[in-house]
């Protein structure tokens, strides 16, 4: 039997969980994770562009492994991490801040920011 591709490999992980044709696999994975954490399951998920926009040419480009949104507007960042490389705590906070600050569009009021931490979820495996 041929060796299977390792789902812990970044490329394979993104193909399995971050593609439109496998959205049902991602939804099952998230629901299993949410149920284990005592959170209600999801019914639908929308995959989002994993690249964040730069405001200036010298700004840091962030690339999420998988970036998704629920039908109720919850943003989910799913990152595959095997080891604590590259300051994972700081990177997680930075990605969270990008999701948080990206909630508003021009003309929207700050009170529309969702402060509920369940609305912006980071999963590190």
Let me know the largest β-sheet.
4 strands, mixed
Tally of strands? 4
Helix proportion:
25-40%
- As residue ranges, the low-confidence spans are none
The value of Rg in angstroms is 16 Å
What general form does the structure show? globular
Termini Cα gap: 28 Å
Strand order of the largest sheet: 1-2-3-4
What structural class results from the helix and strand content? alpha+beta
Strand content: 5-15%
The averaged pLDDT comes out at 82
Our count of helices gives: 3
Description:
The model has no long low-confidence stretch (mean pLDDT 82). The chain is 29% helix and 14% strand. The protein contains three helices and four strands; from the N terminus they run ααβββαβ. Strands 1-2-3-4 form a four-stranded mixed beta sheet, with helices on both faces. The longest helix is centred in the first third of the chain and has 14 residues, at 23-36. It is α+β, with helices and mostly antiparallel strands and 125 residues long. A hairpin with a 4-residue loop joins β2 and β3. It has helices at residues 10-17, 23-36, 88-101; strands spanning 45-47, 66-70, 75-79, 120-124.
Provide a concise account of the structure shown.
This protein has three helices and four strands; from the N terminus they run H-H-E-E-E-H-E. The chain is α+β, with helices and mostly antiparallel strands and 125 residues long. It is globular, with a radius of gyration of 16 Å.
Q: How are the elements arranged and paired?
A:
Layout: H1 10-17, H2 23-36, E1 45-47, E2 66-70, E3 75-79, H3 88-101, E4 120-124
Parallel strand pairs: 3-4
Antiparallel strand pairs: 1-2, 2-3
């Amino acid at each position: 039997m041929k060796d299977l591709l390792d789902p812990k490999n970044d490329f394979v992980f993104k193909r399995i969980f971050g593609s439109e044709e496998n959205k049902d696999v991602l939804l099952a994975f998230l629901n299993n994770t949410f149920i284990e954490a005592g959170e209600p399951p999801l019914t639908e998920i929308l995959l989002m562009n994993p690249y964040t926009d730069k405001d200036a040419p010298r700004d840091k480009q962030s690339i999420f492994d998988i970036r998704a949104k629920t039908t109720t507007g919850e943003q989910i960042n799913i990152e595959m991490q095997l080891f604590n490389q590259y300051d994972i705590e700081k990177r997680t906070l930075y990605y969270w801040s990008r999701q948080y600050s990206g909630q508003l569009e021009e003309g929207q009021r700050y009170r529309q920011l969702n402060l509920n931490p369940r609305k912006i979820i980071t999963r590190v495996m």
